[in-house]
C-alpha cells in the first residue's frame, strides 16, 4: 500500500487528509471516505487501507478542519462514563458547521482532489454523521458520485427544512445503508421515511438493519464495535463499489 498525509485546499481553508492506494502504477477508481464524529485517527486509516486493497484510491479528509488539524478533539475514555457526553457536547458545534452549503463546497474540493489521483466517478462511504455529510455531497454533485454507502448513519430524517431525505430527488448515485439496530439517531420510523423518499425519487438503493449491532458497530476502537456486523459492512460496501465503479 502507498499511504500518506495530504492537504486539500478547500473554499474555507485547508483540510488535512489521509490518502491510501494500491502499491502499483495502475489507475484505480476513487473513494471518498467520510469519518464519524470521533475524527480522523488510526482506526479510520485502517479501514481506508482495507478498502484500498480492493483496488481503490481512498481519500479521508478531516472534515472538522475548520477547528484545526486532526486530532481535533481527544477520544473519550471508555472507562470514564462522563467522558462520552462531554465529548459529544464538544463535537456538536463542529458537526453543525457541516450544513448543506459547507458539504457542497468541501465535497467539490474533495472530488476535485480525487479526480487528479484516481479515475472515473467516485464512490462515497460514510459513518455515523459521515453518512449524512456524504449524502449532502452526493446530492450536490450527482454527476460525479456513482455510489454512496452509509453505515450506522444518523440524522438522515429530521423535521428540519434541510433534512437530507428531502433531497433524495437530487441524487444520482446508487445507495446502500447498513443501519444499526435500535439506533436512536435512526429509528425504525425514520428508516421507513428514508426508504419511502428514495422510492418516490426512483433512487436505486438497498437498506438493511443489522440485528444486534448498535450505533458505531464498525469502529474497533470503540465499545460499540461488532466484528460480524463490521465484516458484513465491508462485504456490502466493496460489492457496491465494485458494481458502480469498476468496468465489467
Features of this protein?
single chain, 248 residues, alpha/beta, Rossmann fold, 8-stranded mixed sheet, 6 helices
How are the secondary structure elements laid out?
Blueprint: E1 2-10, E2 13-21, E3 29-34, H1 42-52, E4 57-61, H2 83-96, H3 100-117, E5 119-127, H4 129-140, E6 145-151, E7 174-180, H5 188-200, E8 205-210, H6 227-245
Parallel strand pairs: 3-4, 3-5, 5-6, 6-7, 7-8
Antiparallel strand pairs: 1-2, 2-4
Helix pairs in contact: 3-4
Describe what you observe in this structure.
This protein has one domain: Alpha/Beta hydrolase fold, catalytic domain (Rossmann fold), CATH 3.40.50.1820. An eight-stranded mixed sheet has the order 1-2-4-3-5-6-7-8, sandwiched between helices. The chain has 248 residues and is an alpha/beta fold. It has six helices and eight strands; from the N terminus they run E-E-E-H-E-H-H-E-H-E-E-H-E-H. The protein is globular and about 45 Å long. The model has no long low-confidence stretch (mean pLDDT 96).
Structural class: alpha/beta
Number of domains: 1
Query: What is the overall pLDDT average?
Result: 96
What is the count of helical runs?
6
Describe the structure concisely:
The chain has 248 residues and is of the alpha/beta class. The protein has helices spanning 42-52, 83-96, 100-117, 129-140, 188-200, 227-245; strands spanning 2-10, 13-21, 29-34, 57-61, 119-127, 145-151, 174-180, 205-210. It has an eight-stranded mixed β-sheet with strand order 1-2-4-3-5-6-7-8, sandwiched between helices.
Amino acid at each position: 500500500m502507498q499511504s500518506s498525509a495530504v492537504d486539500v485546499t478547500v473554499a474555507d481553508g485547508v483540510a488535512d487528509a489521509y490518502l491510501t492506494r494500491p502499491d502499483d502504477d495502475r489507475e484505480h477508481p476513487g473513494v471518498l471516505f467520510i469519518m464519524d464524529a470521533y475524527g480522523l485517527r488510526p482506526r479510520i486509516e485502517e479501514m481506508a487501507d482495507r478498502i484500498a486493497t480492493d483496488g481503490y484510491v481512498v481519500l479521508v479528509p478531516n472534515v472538522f478542519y475548520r477547528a484545526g488539524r486532526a486530532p481535533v478533539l481527544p477520544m473519550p475514555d471508555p472507562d470514564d462514563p462522563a467522558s462520552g457526553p462531554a465529548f459529544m457536547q464538544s463535537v456538536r458545534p463542529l458537526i453543525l458547521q457541516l450544513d448543506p452549503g459547507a458539504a457542497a463546497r468541501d465535497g467539490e474540493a474533495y472530488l476535485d482532489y480525487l479526480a487528479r489521483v484516481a479515475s472515473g466517478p467516485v464512490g462515497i462511504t460514510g459513518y455515523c454523521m459521515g453518512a449524512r455529510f456524504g449524502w449532502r455531497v452526493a446530492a450536490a454533485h450527482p454527476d460525479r458520485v456513482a455510489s454512496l454507502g452509509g453505515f450506522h448513519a444518523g440524522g438522515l430524517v429530521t423535521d428540519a427544512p434541510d433534512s437530507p431525505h428531502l433531497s433524495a430527488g437530487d441524487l444520482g448515485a446508487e445507495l446502500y445503508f447498513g443501519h444499526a439496530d435500535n439506533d436512536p439517531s435512526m429509528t425504525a420510523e425514520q428508516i421507513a421515511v428514508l426508504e419511502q423518499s428514495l422510492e418516490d425519487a426512483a433512487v436505486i438503493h438497498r437498506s438493511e438493519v443489522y440485528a444486534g449491532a448498535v450505533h458505531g458497530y464498525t469502529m474497533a476502537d470503540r465499545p460499540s464495535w461488532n466484528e460480524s456486523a463490521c465484516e458484513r459492512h465491508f462485504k456490502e460496501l466493496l460489492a457496491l463499489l465494485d458494481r458502480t465503479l469498476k468496468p465489467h
